[in-house]
Amino acid sequence: MGNKQTIFTDEQLDAxxxxxxxxxxxxxxxxxxxxxxxxxxxxDMFSVLSEMxxxxxxxxxxxxxxxxxxxxxxxxxDLEKTLNKLTKEELTPxxxxxxxxxxxxxxxxxxxNKLSYADFENMISRAPDFLSTFHIRI
Length: 138
Known about the structure:
The structure is a single chain. This protein has 138 residues and is mainly α. Helix content is 56%, strand content 0%. It contains eight helices and no strands. It has helices spanning 10-17, 22-29, 39-48, 55-66, 76-86, 93-107, 117-125, 130-133. Helix 2 packs across helix 4 (55-66), helix 4 packs across helix 7 and helix 5 (76-86) packs across helix 6 (93-107). The two termini are 21 Å apart.
């Protein structure tokens, strides 16, 4: 009666297991930052990653996921790690360097050579596919 069971398809499980950010996602939602989720944190994670979550909430957590050194900025090193995960380390160091430099050059509104949350939010507001890609289908 009150026990609803969720069944995940093989495709859904494969999509999560292949996600290069799976560890960062869980760490970003856990209070301890180590990936140990309480039930409420688990529910929050799936709520944010649902297709129905608001863009602003998704942006906050995307920023947290990409902020590998947890300093509330996306620096060149954070961007390098993000690119390496997205491309499965198929880009050369020179290509990574170029993409990071161009990203900071175009998105850094205050000229501090790193991206604040405001810089990041402004950047993704110009990315029409952000909402359609930042989710997990359940």
